[in-house]
Amino acid sequence: MIRVTLLRHWPLIISVGFLLAIIAVLLNASLIYTHGHLVYALDDPYIHMAMAKNFAQHGVWGVTKYEFSSSSSSLLYPLLLFVIFFLFGVNEAVPLVLNVVFATLTTYLIYILLKQYKFPSIYNFIVLLSIIFFTPFPAIIFTGMEHMLHTLITIFFAYLSAKILSKERSDLNKEFSFLLILAPLLPMTRYEGLFLVMAVSTLFIMRKRLLESFLLISLSLVPIVIYGLISISNGWYFFPNSILIKNNIPVISSVGIWNFIYLFITRISESHILILIFTTSILFILKFIRSNTLWREQTILLFIFITTAFLHMLFAKTGWFYRYEAYLIAFGIFTIALEVREYLPEKLLFDKYLIPKYIAMILLIFLFISPFAIRGYVSSIITPLATKNIYEQQYQMALFLKEFYQGETVAANDIGTINFIADIKCLDLKGLGSLEVAKAKRESSYNTEYIYKLAKNEDVKIAIVYDHWFESYGGLPPQWIKVGEWKISNNVVCGGDTVSFYAVDPEEEDRLIESLRIFSSKLPKNVKQMGKYIEIKQK
Known about the structure:
Elements: H1 2-8, H2 10-33, H3 44-58, H4 76-88, H5 94-116, H6 121-134, H7 137-141, H8 147-165, H9 174-189, H10 193-206, H11 210-233, H12 241-246, H13 254-269, H14 273-291, H15 297-315, H16 326-340, H17 355-404, E1 409-412, H18 416-421, E2 425-428, H19 435-442, H20 448-457, E3 462-465, E4 481-487, E5 498-503, H21 509-519, E6 528-530, H22 532-538
Parallel strand pairs: 1-2, 1-3
Antiparallel strand pairs: 3-5, 4-5, 4-6
């Protein structure tokens, strides 16, 4: 019986096995690079973990335990981490385990959905491997963030929506109840989930099912409004700082509109999403012409993907270690796979007259796959290197602060790892965790003088920053005293290969020099150390 089940579901079993094998290989390589420490490929997951830890241990929703901060573009994921940390204690392995679970569930969901269409097993297997490798699941898992959960909910919501919309019936049945549960979870997982809800709600309006559309939009906005009001009551913006600072939000002016359009064109022209939008658009047109109706499951899915992807490219980001567009890559390949199947022959017939057709088909598939194959290959190579970068830079910064600056105020521009590991008061010079910085940036008043005054008012002792990040603002205050630098090699993910240590308070210079000198022997050998504290040590 077990053998029959294994044979029947071999595409799923082998695909999950392939995924877990890659994760094991990457984890082993990462642990070698990080001397046995579990480290993620980005600093950002530590923001989630810091917020979850502070909420679980101190009842404070913030990157530090000292004050509220609206620093995460995900509401659901930090809450999920909070529940686990509260029940079982803080453990930095939790995000990795959760992402492996979400990736496995996503693979299982796609397999089940493909089975609904009775496609051949070999075709299902190819689609599963393509989605796993091209998204790419392994790299996303090692970001330790919410993107795998977002992908899982996205595909389920889109498929269920297409299934419901393909029926003329408008009664609120069991399937629609599931949709209502998923609707608020989408924007709670990532605010970009609103793009998908808007696309689906538009289709319900076109279907003249206004009640369903209203319910979907209303429920999806409920958690955002509740959190926005909580944030405002704490003196922060309605939306998290990460959304206001990072995304392409148009400013109502001629220059602002032009910049908005320019960013959109630049973003879409450099993205893999353009290939998916182009392919799904062609398939949508062909499908619509052939069936003369929009209301077929595959046609609806194509429309949903095109609309969602277009909205994402207008208002959100792509890149930054594959993560922002990950859900669209998986969703797009799944949608294309459902539609393209009918163009493929059931059996290959070696007819000489069909050879040109087969060659053309192979070339088209190759042209489509090549950019994604490169994406999957490169991601597998650089993921362990990325964890090495974070270990040698942010992780060491955190250990340094934990040893020498516990409970003191520190200025930084990468705030995740240092706040998860060390207990500090943090002035975030990027603006994710500090409201004053975000306000100044939005009001275009963020400059050298402002940084100096803010740091002085906040009684900042030292700063650990990337110098080049502040060049566009006039540079760092000349009153700050640079006493050292750490430089990593083969940087693939950090905002810069060199971090600088400044004594913000002049009276802190000797202490900072001595602290860096003591800590210098604990740094990984690959980190190049420069500056006053090294020169003094050599003398």
